[in-house]
Amino acid sequence: MSKCPICTSKKILPLIKLNGYDVLRCKDCYLTFVEPLPSNSELETFYQGFMFQKPEDYEIRRKIKDKKKELIKLFQLEGDEKSLSEKKFLDFGAGTGIAYKAAKELGMECFYQDLDNEAKKFTIENFGLQSTHIIDNIDDFDEKFDFIFSDNVIEHVKDPKAFLEKLLKKLNKGGVLIIKTPHSANTETYFNPMISVVKYFFLSLKYNSFGKTVRGFFLRFWHCDPPRHLYSFSKDSFDCLVENSEDKEINHRIEYYRSAWFSNTITKRFFTRDKKASLVKSILVRIVVWPVIFVEVILQILQKLLLSLQVLSPGGIILKVYK
What we know:
Layout: E1 12-18, E2 21-26, E3 32-35, H1 40-47, H2 57-74, E4 88-92, H3 98-105, E5 109-113, H4 117-127, E6 145-151, H5 160-169, E7 171-182, H6 193-205, H7 210-218, E8 231-232, H8 235-243, E9 251-257, H9 266-271, H10 279-308, E10 316-322
Parallel strand pairs: 4-5, 4-6, 6-7
Antiparallel strand pairs: 1-2, 2-3, 3-8, 7-10, 9-10
Helix pairs in contact: 2-3, 6-7
InterPro entries: SAM-dependent_MTases_sf
GO molecular function, one term: methyltransferase activity
GO biological process, one term: methylation
């Protein structure tokens, strides 16, 4: 019988089947998870190049600027800029290295970890990443860090408990660990049809009947799509994860984040489209896309309004751990 990998409860609700996996939800801590787990070799093959999305040249500077603001807010660095040169920062699951570069510009000594060789190569070529600051296996690395940042990584790993313990062992006393991830069963995603409908609803139809897909849609199984995402966390599941940690000298808090305006929308793709497209193609795209843009604008405004009124649950959750 299935049991929750975080709180060990046996009160499990089956949600949907995807790609040969069962997507389940714990009724006690509200963790969404998959069974069975993919093998290590399957995951390693799956991720090589899959997650790498090269930023456009015009986007890079803006992304770094935005990420610097985010890191200052998350780690509460305001007014502490002068002492940052003495701090060590680890971007764990760093991808294209935007957070790595942002922290470096804030004055910290920065280290990079990611499995994707294409992303690693991009960071070396564009942000001056040195081999001495690349971590392949954190267990073999002797350094400890004052700040560890892991953005949308924990949902990909097979063992969240081991993942947390691994990072806590590398955190200096007085240090801060930030883990960002999609929020389990959030209602904000309903207002982004490119994710809720195009991505998850249609994906589910490939493996389930229409009735089971509709049921899964209303149970909000999204952000758990094996072998990519293996877990989706709630406040209760994060609380349980930290409270059961081997490290008893830590405390934590939970925060939430909303999706950015027009993220993962046709509207955003339209306004960042290929500027070299032919005139005929541009006209045809405008004719087809403008009605969709109108609908997306209405949904985005309604989404932000309902979030501000706390009617919707935000799409992302943040675990902050203090040592």
